[in-house]
């Protein structure tokens, strides 16, 4: 493979970069690595974080040819951005692209979302400070399905992000969310104002729905980020965190797959990553990797594929476990608004 524009001699491992694939990122002019590094796992959302190992993982990912990084204020209330900031010190700015987000912030429901222009501005300034950067390549409006309505995002959030881009603090604008239908609705309501789109856990062993929307995203000339092929930890031998929003039937199915893999001494996460990256169309496949071992596993799944035993297990899982397409769309949003209603009632009685 040809070396990317982000290649920096004496920093990158040239052989690793030559093995990596780079794809156009919509109409942005960027060429991004087919494997990209997610920042959600660089926070306590996924348990205690070994900061030293996280920093080493980020730096190793960059040296190995990964050039697209993703983070958000919500990931540990800035912890992920802080870790990225430490890891990126001394690394040439031209060696990577980095995306952060606005809109989703804290774990407490009443402070979780804020799509106001004021908060958007404050968030970007804080992100730049934590990252130690003058600009980010992409600002994404985070999980738009939780906004009271899309008009707020369209008429307040997006114009403020556009102003921030004009000031040079970001280059491109994106939108993220879980419900693909909502993403399509927003993109249609903001023609030619968005540069990229991200949805997560929608092209996995248990959910095939991402393929239905790929043609639309491609027609809009967007950079397409297909994220979390492990389903936020569902498709791992250890299983997900307690907060996972998935419905029980999805969790039970993935638990069954994990049990089969553990009995066969096979890493379900590797199988999931191989399946994840096999989809034609997305610009990049975003995956959280907390350790260099996870990084090596994911890079090997893409570059080297599976051995015969792993191939047989993946075939078995597709034929006997993951026979339908399942998701948890709507459930997390409903729980959020139910919690907000409950708190409002409690406050009115106080």
From TrEMBL:
Q: What is the superkingdom listed in this entry's lineage? A: Eukaryota
Q: Which residues form the NADP-dependent oxidoreductase domain?
A: 35-318
One annotated Gene Ontology cellular component of this protein: cytosol
Q: Which Pfam families match?
A: Aldo_ket_red
Q: Name one GO molecular function term.
A: L-galactose dehydrogenase activity
Q: What is this protein called?
A: NADP-dependent oxidoreductase domain-containing protein
Species the sequence originates in? Hermetia illucens (Black soldier fly)
């Amino acid at each position: 493979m040809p070396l990317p524009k982000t290649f920096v001699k004496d920093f990158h491992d040239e052989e690793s970069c030559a093995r990596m694939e780079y794809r156009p990122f919509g109409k942005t002019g960027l060429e991004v690595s087919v494997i990209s590094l997610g920042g959600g796992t660089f926070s306590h959302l996924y348990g205690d974080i070994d900061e030293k190992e996280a920093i080493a993982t980020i730096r190793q990912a960059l040296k190995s040819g990964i050039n697209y990084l993703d983070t958000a204020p919500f990931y540990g209330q800035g912890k992920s951005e802080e870790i990225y900031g430490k890891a990126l010190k001394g690394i040439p700015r031209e060696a990577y692209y980095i995306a952060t987000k606005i809109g989703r912030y804290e774990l407490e429901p009443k402070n979780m979302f804020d799509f106001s222009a004021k908060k958007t501005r404050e968030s970007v300034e804080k992100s730049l400070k934590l990252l130690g950067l003058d600009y980010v390549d992409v600002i994404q409006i985070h999980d738009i399905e939780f906004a009271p309505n899309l008009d707020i995002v369209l008429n307040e959030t997006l114009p403020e992000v556009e102003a921030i881009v004009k000031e040079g603090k970001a280059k491109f604008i994106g939108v993220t969310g879980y419900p693909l239908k909502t993403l399509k609705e927003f993109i249609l309501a903001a023609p030619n104002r968005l540069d990229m789109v991200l949805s997560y856990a929608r092209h996995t062993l248990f959910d095939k729905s991402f393929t239905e929307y790929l043609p639309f995203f491609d027609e809009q000339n967007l950079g397409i980020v297909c994220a979390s092929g492990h389903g936020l930890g569902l498709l791992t031998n250890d299983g997900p965190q307690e907060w996972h929003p998935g419905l029980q039937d999805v969790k039970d199915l993935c638990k069954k797959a994990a049990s089969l893999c553990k009995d066969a001494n096979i890493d379900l996460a590797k199988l999931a990553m191989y399946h994840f990256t096999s989809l034609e169309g997305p610009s990049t496949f975003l995956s959280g990797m907390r350790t260099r071992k996870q990084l090596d596993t994911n890079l090997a799944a893409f570059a080297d594929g599976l051995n015969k035993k792993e191939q047989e297990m993946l075939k078995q899982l597709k034929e006997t476990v993951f026979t339908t397409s399942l998701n948890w769309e709507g459930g997390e949003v409903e729980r959020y608004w139910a919690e907000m209603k409950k708190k409002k009632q409690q406050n009115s009685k106080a």
